[in-house]
């Protein structure tokens, strides 16, 4: 990096000015950073928190040294990705709080949160176990608790949600559905939506009729396949 000082009249010297050829280097560095973040999101989503920075570097098409120059350790990379995920959940929850139908707002958020947990192994590990980085769990709790509480109170005030439901139940429902999704992913990856439908029906204080479920139950063959160790499953995966 070349730095050149220029003289000025009567006021000493101007602060050092970066040459123009530095800017492309900074753009390249930012592009590499974004490539690393994109690749890391894919790797950790699929492989979970045990994935290494070597795997991230290969997926990004950069050397592992480049990864370490942008992120000093795996924890700092995971921290940035995790906060992006939490901020996205909060944004959706805030949007759901403005829904004209409070019940639909709550149901939409539950579906979004469950889908996020179902499709992201690293997010499930961080949110469900909380042993990897307690600071991030606290960040998630502090960011999400107020808006989730508003979602729940709106649905209760409109008479659409049973009065004994608590904001903490939202997280437990996401955990349950995330566990179902992880267990069934290789055979019936969308079956968690069936159980979300059942749960939503049970959250109503009253109803005229049961709602149609969005997914069929696992067949006997599929259930038998799910009972086998993951490495021994052979049945075709349901769409």
Question: Would you write up a description of this structure?
Answer:
Helix content is 64%, strand content 2%. A two-stranded antiparallel sheet has the order 1-2. It contains ten helices and two strands; from the N terminus they run E-E-H-H-H-H-H-H-H-H-H-H. The longest helix has 26 residues. The N terminus is likely disordered. Helix 4 packs antiparallel against helix 5, helix 4 packs parallel to helix 7 and helix 5 runs antiparallel to helix 7. It has 239 residues and is an all-alpha fold. It folds into two domains: 56 residues, Homeodomain-like (Arc Repressor Mutant, subunit A); 156 residues, Tetracycline Repressor, domain 2.
User: In this structure, how is the largest beta sheet organized?
Assistant: 2 strands, antiparallel
CATH architecture title of the largest domain: Orthogonal Bundle
Q: Output the strand order for the largest sheet.
A: 1-2
User: What is the alpha-carbon Rg in Å?
Assistant: 24 Å
Q: What's the β-strand tally? A: 2
Task: Label the structural class.
Answer: mainly alpha
Low-confidence stretches: 1-11, 18-22
Distance between the termini: 53 Å
CATH class of the largest domain: Mainly Alpha
- Helix fraction, binned, reads 55-70%
* Total individual domains: 2
Q: What is the overall silhouette?
A: globular
Q: Enumerate how many helices there are, as a single number.
A: 10
Listing every helix as H and every strand as E from the N terminus to the C terminus, the arrangement reads EEHHHHHHHHHH
Mean pLDDT: 83
- CATH superfamily label of the largest domain: Tetracycline Repressor, domain 2
CATH topology value of the largest domain: Tetracycline Repressor, domain 2
Q: Beta-strand percentage?
A: under 5%
